[in-house]
Specification:
Blueprint: H1 7-14, E1 28-31, E2 38-42, H2 43-48, H3 53-56, H4 74-78, E3 103-104
Antiparallel strand pairs: 1-2, 2-3
Amino acid sequence: MKEQMRALSLILMVMASGTALAVGPGKTLEFKGSPMGTVIFDGTAHKNAGLTCSDCHNPELFPKMKQGTVNITMNDLYAGKYCGRCHDGKKAFLIKDNCTRCHHKPGIK
């Protein structure tokens, strides 16, 4: 997988509950359940990194595709689970100290 991949966004978005939505190229999905700010998953960014849905949504990484069916914590991410598998600072940007790459607060860019 390429460095541009933003799998961390995927993990963080699953932390909030909601309905299942397809987030393909050209779409974004927002999860507003985090106190750190809304988590935004960008389907285009992941497509541009050369990924397909099945790269993450598979029995090994994300077996469930319905939003809110997987409880993900930052500790999971730091341990290399879920999006943390690729967002390790080698394959894709490092999760730690990059909060604003996924979490967005209103009025802060």
